Amino acid sequence: MPIAASVLLTDLYQFTMLQTYHAEGMNEPAVFELFSRRLPPERGFLLAAGLEQALDFLGNLRFTAAELDWLTDCGRFRPEFVAALEGFRFTGTVDALPEGTAFFANEPVLRVTAPLPQAQLVESRLINLIHFQTLIASKAARCVLAAPDQLLVDFGMRRAHGAEAALLAARANYLAGFAGTATVLAGMQFGIPLFGTMAHSLIQAHDREEDAFERFAAAQPNNVTLLIDTYDTEAAVHKLVNLAPRLQQRGIVIKGVRIDSGDLAEHARQVRQILDKGGLSQVTILGSGDLDEHRIAELRAAGAPFNAFGIGTRLDASTDAPTLDMVYKLQEYAGRPRRKRSEGKATWPGRKQIYRRMSEEGTFVGDCLGLEDHPQPGEALLQPVMRGGQRLAPPESLAVIRERVQQQLAALPFTLRANGTDIYPVDIAPELQELAAQLDQETH
User: Fold this and answer.
1) What order of strands is seen across the sheet that includes strand 364-371?
2) Over the stretch 41-100, which tens digit does the pLDDT of each residue have?
3) What separation, in Å, do the N-terminal and C-terminal C-alpha atoms of the chain show?
4) Domain boundaries, the chain
5) For 250-390, where are the alpha helices, taking DSSP H only?
6) How far apart, in Å, are the Cα atoms of 228 and each of 176, 212, 234, 282?
7) Superfamily name with CATH number, domain 148-316
8) Relative to the CA of 191, which of 86, 185, 232, 392 has its CA 20 to 30 Å away?
């Protein structure tokens, strides 16, 4: 069994709590909501992502014989509790934001309603799946906003934190608006367009740089993008100008060049001049090397003539904000609303809904976080996606999600699109405030 499919990919305390619930017969319906308490300083909004993998996890939740044997043999759990896990399935309800929806602090991305043991056990993996893709998609969206007219490619697989992270980062980047990825498995598994050039090692393995260019072009005649900064960037471009006529005689056209080091803006300007003067104005310039939305904005402000960017480490590791304060909290149990009152970590109780108001021009005006049974003005964002443990619709295509992201980014207030640091208004409905105050009077 793949590691990621195991029910044991969770925290120990999920099982210690489940044994307690089993012993006490605590099986009443519970409502948990997954949300981010606050946004990182440079994230004025987040993009919901990872729902597809979350629903797949819930729909296939079951214990293997080997896992049950291990739980028995580890000595921590009672035999009757482990025996009860043999037929464990998720039979609950899930409401969620459609993937690609913009959301803000305290707004539920996903709500699970199920018997308490089921709703509890899935906590860690749901956070794991939705947190990561939401983190990466939100960073990628900022890159898209920084370069709306340029081709962006995910180059971050080698610096991602593990195999699953690399694959899901490619998916998150693509749904946020990237043109594609260099991660080959993402092409096979998700149908994401693949982009790639070459490494410096190919150049170094040849005695002459121009031989490396010519042989690579012959091997990849339909995708000739050449790395030109191994030795002398401008000298390499002159070699390409001389090489281009010979390649054209063989029906091969140079598609692009990549610059990965040095003063990217100055190199790009020099390279563009040499290419244009040499009759290669159709050749595009791709920049890479420790890029993110901030560096891209600097390059654009400097007038660097890049047509595309390959973005890796700073994106797939989200280096400026490597985590979100995303949590999964109990909001109702056995028909009664519940509220955590921990200092600095208090929650809004009950089953909630997000209501979004729009201007006549189609721009977000503000959200209201309210109780599901007390509708507020605006569009209700949480949608039913699973009932009785069964999905209500087939998985959305990435094309549909990408279109939603484009609409969401276009509808953001200008200040959030421009710098991402302004605070978007999210009101707390009076009924929700009253419920919280009422629960605060209870003695526990």
Assistant:
1) 379-380, 352-358, 364-371, 426-428
2) 889 999 999 999 999 999 999 999 999 999 999 999 999 999 999 999 999 999 999 999
3) 43
4) 3-136+321-440, 148-316
5) 264-277, 293-301, 313-316
6) 29, 11, 8, 17
7) Aldolase class I (3.20.20.70)
8) 392
pTM passes above 0.85: yes
Alpha-helix runs per DSSP H in 103-150: 116-121, 123-146
Architecture of domain 3-136+321-440 in CATH? Alpha-Beta Barrel (3.20)
Alpha-carbon distance of 40 to 139, in angstroms, equals 11
Task: Write the pLDDT tens digit of every residue in 376-389.
Answer: 999 999 999 999 99
Instruction: Give 437's contacts (C-beta < 8 A, 6+ positions apart).
Output: none
CB under 8 Å to 318, separation ≥6 — which residues? 135, 136, 139
How high does pLDDT run on average in the chain?
A: 96
327 forms bridges with which residues in the sheet?
35
Q: How confident is the model at residue 154 (pLDDT cuts 50, 70, 90)?
A: very high
**pLDDT at 418 exceeding the cut of 80:** no
Inter-residue contact 307 to 256 (CB < 8 Å) = yes
pLDDT given at position 77: 97
Is residue 197 within 8 Å of 286, Cβ to Cβ? yes
Residue bearing tokens 């921990």: 342
Q: Return the amino acid letter for 171.
A: R
CB atoms within 10 A of CB 118: 22
